Amino acid sequence: MEKREREEDLDANDLAKRKKLSVEIQAQGPAADGRLAERIMPPGLELPSGWIECPPMGHRMNMLRLVPVKVPLGRRFAQVLTDEEHFSPAKLVEQLQSKKTEVGRIIDLTNTWRYYERDEIDELGVEHVKIRCRGRGQVPEAEAVNTFVWDLLSYHNREPSKWTVLHCTHGYNRTGYMVVSFMVRHGMSVEKALRIFAEHRPPGIYKEDYIRQLYKYNHEPLPTNFKPPHLPAWKPEEPDSPKADQILDSGAVPEEATSEPEEMKHDDIVGEVVPEEEAAEARNIILQLVYGPDPQRWPGGNLRFPGGQPVSLDRQNISLLHEKRYWVTWKADGTRYMMLLCRWGVYLIDRAFNVRRVQMRFPAALVGKDGMLKAHHLTLLDGEMLVDEDQVTEQRTRRFLAYDLIALNGTSLVHRPSKERWARMEEAVIRPRRKEREAIERDAHTGQHAYPARYDYRSEAFSVRRKEFWPLSCMSSLLDSFIPALSHEADGLIFQGYEDHYVPGTDQNLLKWKFAHMNSVDFRLRSKAAGPELLLLETRQVRAPVELPLPGARLAEGPDVKALENLIVECAWDGEAGEWRFMRTRSDKDTPNAYHVYEKVMQSIQDNITQDDLHAEIQAALQLSVYAKDVADAKRHAAAAAAGRK
Description:
The protein is of the alpha+beta class. It has 16 helices and 22 strands.
């Protein structure tokens, strides 16, 4: 808005006061070093330190359709700024329009509302998005970065021709942190992304701790020739004016906690919070990959976790082992997750269908000379989170054990046989990660730079492995040798049909056998005057699922019932005492087992298939033609091993 137009909105007294104040402020003159002096401003009109001399705008970043700028100051700052100094929202939009850049929205990263009024943005016909980020001594939090990246990505899809303006206070550090994070999440290295931002907003991020955190968060080593950046000429030495940035745009920074870290457990909450819109999109992608694109075919709408669930082995379904070819693996006592790999990030999805983001790297192929990551996109894994404990050092390591590949780069594999899904997981997901890690570690060992990427896989939140499956003939070795040597808990065996498709929900052909003392049911615990109640989910012959108490169920003494009120608790059946024994809480679940699941578990307990019973059944099954190849392979491997020992 021009000066003449602004003056028409002021009465004579206000105009006289403003002119008098402006003359007094400008009369303060420049500082000895040539910079404008830190002006003494009236309350409410303090300027961020160095704001006047700070370049107002960077260059347009075409790949992001984004322009980094310093915070524009609203109309009321016209009292203390000349027209030449006053970089306002209106002037910002006007200057970009003169460059044929249509501004669709402004993303504001400041931690205050004091710099301009919201209606000043609305009058320009521009959207305003507020993502609060503290300045001074604190990099943007992961949740804020996730919000920014998803917001910008969504806006690109919604308004492909419009541009986004991004600002913090000066448009360098918080702004640069967000821009670099976006580019890294789309395949670029931190070093290259920092360089590109610096080219478009010289001199780039100038806070050393921001740069170091970008490398650390993205698991990239700091370059050996790294030098701390210099402050721009317009920026006063830290600490900044307490009347500007510190008081008005940072807030109090809480002290870091000094408590001891808690013991690592497999059911710890892992990952970062994402915007609900992003979580909903991840859920929809998963449901499409599992059930197909028609939402009418999604059981439970878009709210039900679609992972396959085994049924307990009993005297009736054990006959399935004779009818078709099965393989076997151990049943790890971990926490169930799906893992969705997208080009912009990796998501963990728990049984309650909660979505969280983890900073990880899943190359679909080795990096080329351009250094750009070609990441998996719309690949869906099924697995469980474990914590391995070294029996000697007692060091704990978090690990994701992937046991199924549901989709590969947007192609659903649910109708492919399990043998194929298992093989393709190794070939397409695990092997590229392993090969890249080997190439990076080889360069580190030799001091060469043959591979055009730097990444520290060891600093990720957890490692990833494919779970092994073996022919039924290996079951005895699993029980006698393999499971006792594991560095995490195992509570039984899983029998997977070799040719079976992936079945969401309860899979009557996917069998689990648990050690007798580990057979368990997940209840919701409620305390009542007459004693604790154990609730199950009733889904049959009701309009909507309802939780009902199990009649006559008794909980063994021990746990603090009030502390467990309304939680999902896993309990094992004590047949001698005729009561349920508390094992642990299930923080990964928000509903108890369904009543029909309870019935299956109780049938399995009553049938009491012992290890000897299971061994006899499998020995009988191995005599059938369906297992002829497995038996022949086992004999060949045994002969080769014997020959090798001679």
